[in-house]
Amino acid sequence: MMMPSTSTIISGDESPVASVSGESSLSSDMTQTVHFSSGNPRIGETRGVMHLFSDDSVSSSSSSNLPIGRNPLVCVLGVPNHMTYADFCQFCGSFIHHILEMRTVRNDNIENRYSILIRFDSQESTDTFFHHFRGKQFNSLEEDLCRLLFTLDVQFTGYSGSIDHTQPSAAGPIEQPTCPVCLERLDQDTGGILTTMCNHSFHCSCISNWPDSSCPVCRYCQQQPENSVCYVCQTTENLWMCVICGVVGCGRYKEGHARRHWEETEHCYSLELETQRVWDYAGDNYVHRLIQSKTDGKLVELNSHGSLSKDGCGSCEYSDSGMTDALLNSKVDMIISEYNELLQAQLENQKQYFEKLLQNVKEETEQKVSEAASKAISQRLQKLQTRFDRCVKEKQFLEDVNENLVKNKDVWSTKITEMEEREKKGVRAKDEKIQGLEEQLGKLMAQMDGESEVSQTKEVQDATVLPVSTTNTSSSGSGNGIHANKQKSNRRKG
């Protein structure tokens, strides 16, 4: 059966030796056995076995090929731990109205996943749900697929934990439980019932509005945190957690890193993770007032009017109720006063500690700012000095160039003056030379003209007048005369 406190899934005995209905008529190749457990391990744990039809028994998606002898009970295997109860109810969609009961269980040797047993109101709804969700992704962002198997039978094989939380016997009337959220009766006729991994039952419509993965009653979380380790040596034994900052360190019987943390930070309160007891390093004793009961997991006062036995059960030590109340009130007042003083002292110590930290941070910040400013100023001065030196060098270079240019100007001015004077003298000499040559040429021309006239006169006197033909041009006549004159002059020279 699935949830004995509300209803039975399959009729049969709940004892560990209960037989599986119809299992003898089925082949062992068509069924598989899955061990499961449920419940809060700190309080009590229920163990059992599920007999499921294997995947080979379903050859196709048609209803005619579904396993024979199936019940309106299916099991969803391998649901990711981060998927909350509300997420799974939303995943079921419209089929949530056909679900009578759901139970969340843990599979043995499988971490970060859980399974859900679902019982429907009819076989038709079960088959439709099986066809619709088999092999479907839980969401579009992950590759995890919904693995659905028909369930033949469920057997509870045992319970470990407190006697108060064992399964109720079938003898005698059993009062129907109520939903812790809406306080209505957990009746399957009015709505589906979901049982969490810690064995607390709710209406599906109520748990659908709970966004957390923890139980609304006991806060047991189906997604268990990772094992704590020492922040220095990474050991997992004898661990203590600072109740102020949450640092986890090993105890004095290991490397003593928790005590070293107290010496460095002055956080004097540390919680032992195994026993949930609080140790005061400053007072060197335990200072916790509440511990967790092994019976129901609730917090109870330590060393109160009811002493706590080894098994977690309280026993009264006083017979007079008036005296007991008076002692209890006086002890409560004393505890409150002591707690207030202790809290005030601790807060004052923490105030001084954090003020010291703030002062150190402020000084370090001011020092860093001063160093950064000095460094920036020195770098700026160095850059400016470099630029200044470069400018001085450029100025010196320009002054040298200017001085050289001035010197060159004077030299070239003198050279230009000398060249102008030489040019003027040359022009003057050339003019004088040209004038002398012109005079010589004039004299020469005059002399040549005189000689020419004399020679022409003599030729005229010696020459015979000859008739000149009209066809001869003046030019030819003059040419002949000149030729004759030349011959005469040649004879003279000869």
From TrEMBL:
Give the compositionally biased regions (Basic residues).
485-494
Q: Extract the InterPro entries matched here.
A: BRAP2/ETP1_RRM, RING-H2_BRAP2, Znf_RING, Znf_UBP
Q: Where is the composition biased (Polar residues)?
A: 1-10, 29-40
Q: Which UniProt keywords apply?
A: Coiled coil, Metal-binding, Zinc, Zinc-finger
Per the database record, which ranges form the UBP-type domain?
Answer: 213-306
Give GO cellular component annotations, separated by semicolons.
cytoplasm
Q: Where is the composition biased (Low complexity)?
A: 14-28
Q: Could you provide one GO biological process annotation from this protein's UniProt record?
A: Ras protein signal transduction
MF-aspect GO terms: ubiquitin binding; ubiquitin protein ligase activity; zinc ion binding
Chain intervals for the UniProt region annotation (Disordered): 1-42, 447-494
Q: Which branch of life, at top level?
A: Eukaryota
Return the protein name: Zinc finger RING-type
Organism of origin is Arabidopsis thaliana x Arabidopsis arenosa
